[in-house]
Amino acid sequence: VVSLDVNPSLELYLNRRDTVIKTISKNDDGQTVADQTDVTGQHLSEAVATLVTTMTQDGYLEQAQDRQSAVLVTVSSKQNEKKTEELKQNVTANVEYSLAVNEVPAVVYGQSEANGEVRQEVQQLADEYQISQGKAAFIQSLASENENLEKEEVSRLAQMNMSEISNQIEENSYRLGNQVQVTSVTEETITKVRVVRSASGS
Question: Using CA atoms, how far apart are residues 10 and 47, in angstroms rounded to an integer?
Answer without folding.
Answer: 11
